[in-house]
């Protein structure tokens, strides 16, 4: 017959680091390193440890129990880059709104690789943030598992899907591409070049353009893919590459205003008139686009609204307030200027 006292003791025993090690099939040293210094551990290993933490109920670490029981007033914000106002405007608006609500923002720049994002987020979670903001909807599976186990509010921005990790505010990159394609078809153009950065969101916009342009089978479509983040030099180099093919283009569609600015500069250097000889389209309505000569035709999204509303929704959820919409589509607008 079992001893009731022993049974009660087993029921109330607090899970230990060794329990997590046994459940994960890893050494205690590896588990400790994953919990206390996740940056030096593979994201897949951190996720494995967090699964074991969730299974055992271990609460002696910063990633699990600490997050559930205490407020750090810290929000981790992860963006690819801030070297122009593509993301900087959203980040600044987010910081201002979070400060107003009594939160501090920890900003991390991760570039455009999913591996870098996963590694940095694992490190950020060791700082016990009350919530986290991610850019885009494409993440490594290990990172998704890690965030689910961390059990904190997650806000994704600058993209759109009906199935976010938690909450999302953004816009449809595919619909933006479609709108650009329709715009140029309605102008009667038939010979196109697309200069596209390699990141997933830019690729979705590019594919959205091509889907529409290909509805006219006689359209000529050429592509140049450049590494992310794109810059003016890449725009200039890409146009040189396209012109060297000997083909004539009526429009160059770029996945950023920065690329478009480079294309316009190179067109001028080659003796081409924009828009007389070549129409040029950008994306994001960066702060120089309206003041360039010629002013750049582009697609505008409300970058400030994204930041403000992301901060508001995240703070509301942290504080237990009701969130009326988990997914918010802020839309976009085509801004027609001189270049196209």
Overview features:
single chain; 340 residues; alpha/beta; 434 Repressor (Amino-terminal Domain); Rossmann fold; 3 domains; 6-stranded parallel β-sheet; 4-stranded parallel β-sheet; 12 strands; 16% strand; elongated; disordered N terminus; DNA-binding; Peripla_BP_I
Structure description:
By secondary structure, the chain is an alpha/beta fold. It has 3 domains: 1-56, 434 Repressor (Amino-terminal Domain) (Orthogonal Bundle); 72-171 and 302-332, Rossmann fold (3-Layer(aba) Sandwich); 173-300, Response regulator (Rossmann fold). The chain contains 13 helices and 12 strands. It has helices at 4-12, 17-24, 28-36, 43-56, 65-69, 85-100, 114-125, 141-150, 173-186, 200-213, 232-244, 257-269, 303-318; strands at 74-79, 104-109, 131-135, 154-157, 167-170, 191-197, 220-226, 251-254, 279-281, 298-300, 327-329, 333-335. Strands 2-1-3-4-5-11 form a 6-stranded parallel β-sheet, with helices on both faces. Strands 7-6-8-9 form a 4-stranded parallel β-sheet, sandwiched between helices. Helix 2 (17-24) crosses helix 4.
